[in-house]
Design a protein that fits this description.
Rossmann fold; single chain
């Protein structure tokens, strides 16, 4: 059973549930105060505006008691995926490195973007080929990935950068970077390869007639 953690202000929990259902993966939306159910085999931290994004996006949700259980589950190798606000929660809680800050445009951006698969040897990217270009939607105002240069170099060396923003031909350029993320990074994994966060929304790209199916490869890690 995949537990989708709902906080006050979450608004992509139902999207995640329906996307997983469309892929034949059983899931359950869990209120954060109720903790993780027994038999949890995977965890989604969904998008939205948890706690109204007060202080910083994801900062208050990252201090919810359920995050201790999420970290324990991650330590046991249970897959954990943070998407958009869930990515912000993941970085704020220390599940993954770096931080997500205000877009370089200082505007909320909602559009489809291209991503290049940087490392296909992880549960989250195994359905793709290294260098493959996929298309997913974004919808965020604080999606700029920030990290110091030395730490980014370490992530590169360890193969922990999963996706980069790119153009349709796979070129990583400033013009193709929608939010000014360092190195064009759109998704990274934690110390364990079973933990990952990304700003684009794979759960909104699982059906041919609604957003395409490029997001299925990410969610397939839960299958």
């Amino acid at each position: 059973m995949i537990a989708i953690v709902r906080f006050g202000g979450s608004n992509c929990d139902r999207d995640a549930e329906r996307a997983l259902s469309a892929m034949g993966i059983e899931s359950e939306i869990v209120w954060h105060e109720d903790g993780l159910p027994e038999g949890t085999t995977g965890i989604v931290l969904p998008g939205g505006f948890s706690y109204g994004d007060y202080l910083r996006a994801g900062a208050m949700a990252a201090r919810s008691p359920i995050l201790a259980a999420v970290r324990d589950a991650a330590d046991e190798g249970i897959p954990v995926l943070g998407v958009c606000n869930g990515a912000q929660i993941g970085s704020e809680s220390g599940l993954t490195p770096g931080a997500f800050t205000t877009n370089a445009s200082a505007r909320f951006q909602c559009e489809h973007v291209h991503l290049r698969v940087e490392n296909a040897d992880t549960p989250w990217t195994a359905a793709y080929e290294a260098g493959e270009v996929i298309e997913l939607p974004i919808a965020h105002g604080e999606g700029r990935f920030e990290i110091d240069e030395a730490e980014l170099d370490r992530l590169e060396t360890e193969g922990r950068v999963l996706f980069r923003y790119c153009d349709a031909e796979g070129r990583v350029t400033q013009a193709a970077n929608p939010n000014g993320s360092a190195g064009g990074v759109a998704g990274v994994r934690g110390e364990r390869e079973s933990v990952a966060v990304l700003m684009p929304h794979p759960e909104r790209a699982v059906l041919d007639d609604i957003g395409g199916t490029d997001g299925r490869g990410v969610l397939a890690a839960f299958a």
